[in-house]
Structure formats: structure tokens, C-alpha cells
Amino acid sequence: MFAALHVPDLTVAAALKAFPEGRGMPCAVLQIDPEAMAEKVKLPLQAVNELARSTGIASGWPLNRALVRCPDLKVLSPDPAGEAELMRDLIALAESLTPDLEIAGRDTLILDLSRTTSRHAARLASLELPGACLLYSKAPTPDLARLAVRHASCHGLQISPKDIAVLPFSLLGHLPEGEGFLPLLKDWGIRSLGDFMKLPRQALAERLGPRAGAWHDLLHAKSCRLLRLHRPPESMEQTMDFEEALRSTEPLLFSFKRLLHSLSARLAARHVAVKTLRIIFHLDGGACLLREIRLPEPRVEEEELLRPISVLLDSLKTGKGITGITLDVEITLPTAAQKDWFIRQLPRPERWTDTLAQLEGLLGPGKMGIPLPPESHRPDDFKLRSADGSPAPDPGRFQPSCSLPLRRFRPAYQVNVASDAEARPPRPYALLTGPYRGEILEARGPFRQSGHWWDPQAEWRRLEWDVLLANQHLLRLAFQPPDQWLIDGLYQ
After folding, report:
1. In Å, how far are 13, 71, 86 from 30, measured between CA atoms?
2. DSSP three-state, residue 466
3. Which InterPro entries does this one have (predicted)?
4. Which residues pair with 197 in a beta bridge?
5. Which residues have CB under 8 Å from 208's CB, separation 6+?
6. The overall pTM is greater than 0.70
7. What angle, rounded to 10 degrees, do the helices at 349-363 and 302-314 form?
């Protein structure tokens, strides 16, 4: 047996905490945007309460239209902190009955009562949420309970497929992708969930897809899924402060070993492993230094976690004494996979971790990885993938097509160019500024390049020339509209 707890109009209930006098009035929540109001944009209502809905108002209406329909409408500002507090109180009420619960929405919980005694289950009727209305319904499946609790007539009842058949079919809009099917079902003449349940499942799936077939099974209580249990996240963060600032590696390594000893035991007890190590060094003067170590494979053992930290400490240069350290980890499930005969794998991933840590210590965080060519013709464009041990792309596929090597300038030199501004495209005549100046004796081009024309924010265009100057320098010259000239590189 499952139960669903639902707080109707949670957004309005949270906003009314700051205005308790409006509990007996039609109320709506509206996010005030000064810029939109200055431009006279019609702001839609985020949420309304039951009294406002009884006047014909619904969420999404413009404020001016709602005020015409209900002049006594009280407009409230949203209170995200109050909404989160109400949700925490609701979870605390549910956990007093059972620890097995799922957060099914921003205002709904599903409880598994299979391991709850009848005496504890009877406490559902006495649950109260201060400052908000609380509804509950019971059903043989979790999704059926979640659907039934949305209708006030099902409050406090144990619902079966026969009972839910009399409810309006608009409840299907609360199911995933259900809102888009409501106009079509209305055209079919469906007015209640019972009308939908009478339709042949096979015909529904053929016309509306497998989603409609899943709804049919849900309403007939033929499918009972497992709950996605809510568990509060447990922090693995550990902090150690030092009486005196440390400036050498040995005491730091000893401190990390103490932290990893307890961390390894906690990881083994929870059957999880470390994916990423996050280390914060607290320095003299209050400054902090953050370093991350990504492991190629999840690890639990203390020695394997200490090794990359030791490599990091050997290359660490802080310039100040270290007054404390904070160690946190990103956890994941441990790997348990059979080796593949046909794919080359790392024989000792821990040594690969040491190498990555040494390179990151030399180059700095975020400056090391595997360059990958994106799906674009933009020159010098590449993506950097984390060096996690995956095979790099075949370099033979990306050989340069030019016969002369081009030494690129990063960043490119921005220069002034004498050109024919009337020509389309512009024709360069001489370089006036920059490290290479002179008259252009010969130019080949322009070679046009562009991309992302479908996105006005990311669209780019450029023209390129290979130019020979009077001093015999062979350059690659680029023009980026509207008026930017760049020297991309020097042919050698």
C-alpha cells in the first residue's frame, strides 16, 4: 500500500506566511520584474489559490485580466525560502511514519507503507502542516496515489481503479507529457478518467504512442514501480586546523593520511568509492587555495587515495603558510566490470593518476586534457576533454592540408590594414601596425568561413588571405566583420 501527501497551492501558502490576513481572500502570486514593468510587459500569474480559481481566474493569466475578473484579488510576492521550509516540514511529517518516501514534485510526496504498522499508518489522518492545507490519499500503486491526491474528493480515502474512474480526465495533465494530449482527448469526447480507461489499450498505444499505454496501465493499477527513495545527502567533508602554519610537505602528508583513514572506512561501509578529491588549503591571511584531483577509476583504498595527493603536494607552491586543510570527495559507485580483450585498457590506473597530478601541478588546474575537434569549421576551435584514460582520437584523420608549416600566434595580433573599404569583400593593400608591417605584394583569397548562422548570438564569419609582404614575410591575414583585422600566423 502507498500513500501520497499533497500541499495544494504551496506557492500561495508560503507567500501568505508574510500576510496572514489574506487567508480568507482570493490571492495570487506574481513575480515583480521592474524591467518588464517599465516596458509594460503583461506579467502572468505564477499561482492562485482556490478562492481565486472559484472566480474563474487561473495561473498564467495576465494581471490586468485577473483584476478585471476579480477586483478584490490580493497580489503577493513569491517566497522561495518559505516554500523550501514548507517542503522540509512536509518531509519531516512523512519521515515520522516511514523512511521510505519519494519526492514526486515540489508539493507532493509518495510514501511506501508496506513496512509501516497499521497503528502508524492510522496517523495519516492526524497529520497537520502549519500554515498550509494537507491532503492525503492511499492506493495500491504509487502513481495511482499521486494522481488521486490531486483531487480534493479523494482526501483521506483508499482509492481503487473503480473509484478513480469518476474523476475528471484533466488529472491526466499532471502526468508526464499529459498536458499536450488533453485537447485531443477532449475532441474525442472524453470527459472522465473512466472514459479513458474504457478505450482499448492497444489502440491507444498505436494512435498516441507508448506513453498513452503506460497511462492506461497506471489507471488500472497494473504497473507498480519502485520508489526513488529520498535520502538526505551525507557530507564526506573533513577539516583539520593546525596550531601553527605548516610550510613543509611531511606534516601535511601525515594530516591527509589521518583524514583518508577515516574516509576510507566510511566509504567501505557505504559501498561507494571516490571519483574526485577536492582539497582546500587555508592560508595565512584568510586566503584559500582549491585543488581538484580526478581519478581515472573510482577508488576506496587509503594508499591509492594518498598517492595523488602526495604528488600534488610535491608540486604545490602557496607562498604562504598553511593553517588548515579541508578534504571533500565526490562519490560514485565502485567499478566492477570484466576486462575487455579487444580494447586497450590502463594496466595500472593509479600510476596514470600520478602522472595526471604531476602535469596538473606543472600546468595548473583546467589546462590539461585531450583536445577533440568539434563539429565546426572554425579555425583553432577545439574542445578539451578530461584526461580520464579514454583513447584519444586518431591523429591521422586531422593532418594539415597546407604544405608549409604555419606558426600560429595565440592570441592573434590585431592590426590596422590599409584596404579598399568600398570593395565587397574588402581588399587589403598594406599592414600599417603590428610586428609585421609593409606593402602587400601578393594576396591569395579571400577564403570564406562561417558557422552557427542559425543562432544570432553565436554566429561567426571571417575571411582569410595568404599575403606576401615586401619584406618577404608570408602571413595569414584574417578579417572579422565589421572592422577587425588579425594576423593569425606566419608561414615558415
Report:
1. 13, 16, 19
2. strand
3. DNA/RNA_pol_sf (IPR043502), Rev_trsase/Diguanyl_cyclase (IPR043128), SulA_CellDiv_inhibitor (IPR050356), UmuC (IPR001126)
4. none
5. 181, 184
6. no
7. 20
